TrEMBL record:
Keyword Iron listed: yes
Record's catalysed reaction(s): lutein = (3R,3'S)-zeaxanthin; an all-trans-retinyl ester + H2O = 11-cis-retinol + a fatty acid + H(+); all-trans-retinyl hexadecanoate + H2O = 11-cis-retinol + hexadecanoate + H(+)
Residues bound to Fe cation: H177, H292, H506
Broad class of the protein's primary localization: membrane
Family (UniProt): Belongs to the carotenoid oxygenase family.
A Gene Ontology biological process term: zeaxanthin biosynthetic process
Cofactor(s) the record lists: Fe(2+)
UniProtKB keywords: Cell membrane, Hydrolase, Iron, Isomerase, Lipoprotein, Membrane, Metal-binding, Palmitate, Sensory transduction, Vision
EC number: 3.1.1.64, 5.3.3.22
Keyword presence, Cell membrane: yes
Name under which the protein is recorded: Retinoid isomerohydrolase
GO CC annotation, single: plasma membrane
Amino acid sequence: MVEHPAGGYKKLFETVEELSSPVTAHVTGRIPTWLRGSLLRCGPGLFEVGAEPFYHLFDGQALLHKFDFKEGHVTYHRRFVRTDAYVRAMTEKRIVITEFGTYAYPDPCKNIFSRFFSYFKGVEVTDNALVNVYPVGEDYYACTETNFITKINPDTLETIKQVDLCKYVSVNGATAHPHVENDGTVYNIGNCFGKNFSLAYNIIRIPPLQAGQSACLQMSSFGLTPNYIVFVETPVKINLLKFLSSWSLWGANYMDCFESNETMGVWLHVAEKKKGRLLNIKYRTSAFNLFHHINTFEDNGFLIVDLCTWKGFEFVYNYLYLANLRANWDEVKKQAEKAPQPEARRYVLPLRIDKADTGKNLVTLPYTTATATLRSDETVWLEPEVIFSGPRHAFEFPQINYKKYGGKPYTYTYGLGLNHFVPDRLCKLNVKTKETWVWQEPDSYPSEPIFVSHPDALEEDDGVVLSIVISPGSGPKPAYLLILNAKDMSEVARAEVEVNIPVTFHGLFKRA
């Protein structure tokens, strides 16, 4: 267990300024000549407005980052996304729109009557697009998990316009982890309000653009294979009645409206992709939290679903308040020991069910210990195979060679290693043998690893892994872009900058 008593990880949660123009990075090692394009990343960059702090990791205002690669040279640029939440906060010099874990109080300058009535105007949903960046056709969007996505210019990082998904499809929000198929089709899952204050789930499909068209739908994670969509329903839910009433009446934030159901466990829902129709098979397992799918694929009448789980029904987001993450190391460890524990797991879902097999394990694949048992109530109870586990060590923010192996049998995944919630290493995992390779340096805090395949790759792991690392104790260059050999996780090069870079969540590599 690596210790971090100096607390350098606190620099991940410090406000920074945007840059007026790109800065040149100092390169050590040699950038591969074939690596041409831009690494785009998204995360929070403003953690307070004036004297008003944001309280949760998912509240800071969205900052877009870009590392450009051209002929062995690297530049770094960043700009805040001009969302309504950001622009109004800058204009009024206070937090105007309620975020995930921070309530926005009514304007104190208004009189008591106008403040009272502002409580009853309904919920103003944030458009703070700090979680991910993804393409739709030739356009790029920054997003969070509400119904708003923000079109951005990937070259200049300028904000182009806000798009409300509600105007195009019947959803109140959508995941920040859509799947983009090789032909450009985008799949996502959204939720909408159903009858009797229930939540329903909708599959969103954005077809690939034809030549000359623009996108008609300027549009947590799920599994997608050539024939199926897998959605995991965890025990953590938004209480819709509380969301619609209490929010207006006594000033709740999103976190106040989540509830954990101690008895429901987890349900896995499978839909046929082409027909959009749910399979009439009820898959169940014990309770866990889930943020990221690793990969999902089909094999001989089974769906193999690989997930980054957190064991138990308690909401892991409860431990991601900034006060927890900025605490001294001993306190960070103490809190993490109380939290749900991380585990990467493989579940196997049989697609053909025969009632004569009640009581039997239906999994016949030779390479997994995962089981699926048909019960007398016709539910299929799943027990996983553990593919990565360490005490308070998470394998999270998983990435694969997505273009060639997304939705297909695969061998390797790359992840960000969290040590008591502190990101302190990068991992490569062989999901078949469970062998791991690790990159780690003292007082260095990386971000999600992005795999970039070599243009002439013959093997699944031919390529490089890119990650933004902060190393606040190492002199005048506190952050750098790290380039690793994807085969053995050895360092190829780094591009250092003279500015701090706060935490980033997700992103992509846009080839030149």
